[in-house]
Amino acid sequence: MIASDPRPSTQPARWWTMRPDNRIECQLCPRSCKLQSGQRGFCFVRQRVGDEMVLTTYGRSSGFCIDPIEKKPLNHFLPGTSVLSFGTAGCNLGCRFCQNWDISKAREFDRLADAAAPDAIADAARRHGCRSVAFTYNDPVIFAEYALDVAQACRECGIKTVAVTAGYITDEARPEFFRAMDAANVDLKAFTDDFYQRLCFARLQPVLDTLVYLRKETGVWFEVTTLLIPGENDRPEEIDRASDWFAAQLGPDVPWHFTAFHPDFKMLGHPPTPVATLMQARDIARSKGLRHVYTGNAFNRTGASTWCPECGALLIERHWHDLRSYHLDGNRCAACGCRIAGHFERTPGTWGTRREPVRLS
């Protein structure tokens, strides 16, 4: 049990340098925020205090919850198991369509209602039977020091760690951050720089660099998610170009999730994404040779389930996040023996669709 403390915790931050003009430059994300004394970065949680940078949310969370791993979404990483999920506050992107805006856009530390040291989080995951801990709800890149310490504590007791991230991180910080992770889901929000600049206040290329790095330089299992927003990033021509890049740079076995947008935050005027749009994107990606393309945030058995790319057999039938049938023999199709990329066990987990809040303090 960790005693509650109403004050945000601070911890010396890493990945910064002092500039000749006496400003501190953050080198964690591509924004390279340059701070005078007392100033905070775009993410709001990294601050200059005196002549150093600190992370102001170390050891603090907006809440802990046990989720199905499929909710991250990860469909090829320990299917059916439970994951202890948590986030902090703030974000290094400014997405106008953010689906977790009440957390990621938080500017008040009273949202950080739960406190936990890294070893307490790992112990809670173990006690609750969770196979993994997920850094989610807001981007773990901005609380990297905390995430890395939690990841180390998890590894010491056999718990896997998952980063749910936009992948907006520098070349300098990327290796150490992902070296601590067992799995990741990376948001590829669109395939145009115009979208990233206009709706996320960011750039596309660093995200592409992260995806290529994960594929070619690490053993991290990762999947990709694209939220399709009507009229913004759902044009067939854009999906076609993105699919060509995906196939050439990431290969055919990395799962890609196309998920439905629901009006939220500052994009309340856009309609929800039709299932037909999700399925059209799935068809385009599959036509480029991608083997595991999914649809999400809208009910569709075909798009939610895993199918054998060789014989077409139904391997994992999903009803939302619930597994209905399972026809894998380890990591192979039970019908034809085709090897399926991912981390599968002999039998799947049985967590189902439950979502259980957990208090650690």
Give an overview in words.
The protein is of the alpha/beta class and 361 residues long. It has two domains: 45 residues, no CATH class; 250 residues, Aldolase class I (TIM Barrel), CATH 3.20.20. Helix content is 24%, strand content 24%. The chain is built from nine helices and 22 strands. It has a nine-stranded mixed β-sheet. Strands 1-6-5 form a three-stranded antiparallel β-sheet, with no helix packed on it. Strand 17 and strand 18 form a beta hairpin. Helix 2 crosses helix 3 and helix 7 packs across helix 8. The protein starts with 10 loop residues before the first strand and ends with a strand.
Q: Could you tell me the number of beta strands?
A: 22
The top-level CATH class of the largest domain is Alpha Beta
Strand content: 15-25%
**Helical content (DSSP H or I, runs of 4+):** 10-25%
At the fold tier of CATH, the topology name of the largest domain is TIM Barrel
What's the N-to-C terminus distance? 6 Å
**Total helical segments:** 9
The main sheet orders its strands as 16-15-14-13-12-11-9-8-22
Task: Using the 3D structure, state the CATH architecture of the largest domain.
Answer: Alpha-Beta Barrel
- Average pLDDT for all residues: 93
The low-confidence runs, each spanning 5 or more residues with pLDDT under 50, are 1-8
For CATH, the homologous superfamily of the largest domain is named as: Aldolase class I
The rounded Rg comes to: 20 Å
Shape: globular
Sketch the major β-sheet: 9 strands, mixed
What's the number of domains?
2
Indicate the structural class: alpha/beta
